[in-house]
Amino acid sequence: MSSKPRDMKDSLVREQGLTYDDYASLPDEGVRYELVNGVLEAMTPAPSPRHQSVCLMIHHVLMNTCSSDFFIFAAPIDLILSDSDVRQPDLVMVRRSNASILTRRGIEGVPDLVAEVLSAYSARRDRHGKLRTYAKYAVPEYWIVDAANRCLEQYVLADGGRYELHQVYLENDPVQSERLPCVSFTMARILEAAEGLPD
After folding, report:
1. What is the DSSP letter of 130?
2. Among 186, 54, 188, 73, which Cα is nearest to 118's?
3. Which pLDDT value is given to residue 16?
4. What is d(CA 187, CA 185) in angstroms, rounded to the nearest whole number?
5. What is the pTM of this model?
């Protein structure tokens, strides 16, 4: 016989048009979810050691060069773009002058940058679903970090609210951003910390 928390979760998963309050009331059973157009999407399985190492190294280098101007967050953190769209990006940057969007619930508004590190289980979601969500809410810059191909894809929001692939940075190319002038690192530096770790 199912427990009450399980019954509540199963009921919510079957419904359409869920809100942030429904999402926030889910029992903590070790599974992370995102809310996409009012529908729950499970984020499983957990990221690999290599994925986590890449995320943490990018976070580290950004903290070293950008923390005076930006708040920099690593997952898990809720990016609440609307009452029916809640994402959990791998990395987020919010300009300190825009700190009003930071609340006890997470980030409630549009950040300056969102980055996702691809994994075998997240590639489709990151390249399609999340790209559409971030464009819909006009996140100005989106990075897809492809550790398997040792590169970073930089997408910039263009006229019409669609992302354009602005640059692909290979291992030794200095990653830079017109919107985020403090950004300066190479994928080679990021990947060095993850050498030998399983994907």
Report:
1. H
2. 54
3. 58
4. 7
5. 0.89
